[in-house]
Specification:
Distance between the termini: 101 Å
Order of helices and strands: EEHEEHHHHHHHHH
Number of strands: 4
Structural class: alpha+beta
Number of domains: 2
Strand content: 5-15%
Strand order of the largest sheet: 2-1-3-4
Helix content: 55-70%
């Protein structure tokens, strides 16, 4: 059949078309150029017959598609209701999801832990900023209390302290959208104040600035309790050291 030539015609056609090879006839079948009711000239019987009457030709032009079946599997129910079990309430369901029940406390949701760590990181960053503001303001308290705008503007430490105080208060209110500004403040403080004290030979002051800036920066990016606690202690310790030494 592969080398056979076919002449075809419709039921009401007076003229035949062809010859077509089997490949060409297959292409016509794919584009509906021929149908199962189309006639072809059967050289064996020397008569016009429909394609659907020839099983071999039907199998070539419209091969039967294999059906995909899935093997039935037996399922087992893990949660079996026991007599006397009380229905689960919404509060119990939420508590289980947050790892607050005896059965789920060892599988506490990591997202919840990260969220809580981020909250403590924000609080620690707020405290560091406020302590830094105090450290920057204390040596210039006389200038601040004079309310002389000209003198205050002339003191960059006071301006930086005011910025730190504003950032700290906003962080205390939970404005985590300030994180990019907080990180910039940490890097700026490390570069500006650290370089200033290094050129003046004030190594303790420089180390206090480095600790404050590093702690502030990492409090905004860490989401694990232990590293966050270390960063917070370093930052708070550095800010307290700055205030205690009266660096400005």
């Amino acid at each position: 059949m592969a080398t056979q030539e076919f002449y075809i015609r419709g039921a009401n056609d007076t003229d035949a078309r062809g010859p077509f090879s089997l490949e060409q006839l297959t292409s016509l079948a794919e584009t509906s150029g021929v149908t199962k009711e189309t006639y072809f000239y059967d050289a064996t019987s020397e008569q016009w017959v429909t394609i659907e009457s020839n099983a071999e030709l039907m199998a070539v032009l419209w091969p039967e598609k294999k059906k995909i079946t899935f093997k039935a599997t037996q399922t087992k129910t893990l949660n079996v209701e026991k007599e006397g079990d009380a229905p689960i309430t919404v509060e119990q369901f939420l508590a289980a999801a947050e790892g607050k029940t005896d059965d789920t406390k060892d599988r506490k949701n990591k997202n919840v832990i990260m969220m809580q760590a981020a909250i403590w990181g924000t609080r620690a960053a707020a405290l560091i900023c406020i302590l830094s503001a105090v450290a920057l303001a204390l040596p210039n308290i006389d200038t601040i209390s004079s309310f002389d705008v000209g003198k205050i503007i002339a003191q960059p430490y006071i301006i930086l302290g005011i910025i730190d105080l504003a950032i700290g208060l906003l962080l205390a209110l939970g404005m985590i959208s300030l994180y990019p500004l907080v990180r910039f403040r940490a890097v700026f403080g490390l570069g500006f104040l650290g370089f200033l004290f290094w050129t003046q030979g004030q190594s303790p002051a420089m180390l206090a600035v480095v600790a404050t800036s590093a702690g502030l920066y990492f409090c905004t990016i860490l989401l694990s309790y232990i590293p966050l606690a270390i960063a917070a202690l370093v930052g708070i310790g550095g800010a307290i050291a700055m205030a205690g030494m009266g660096l400005m």
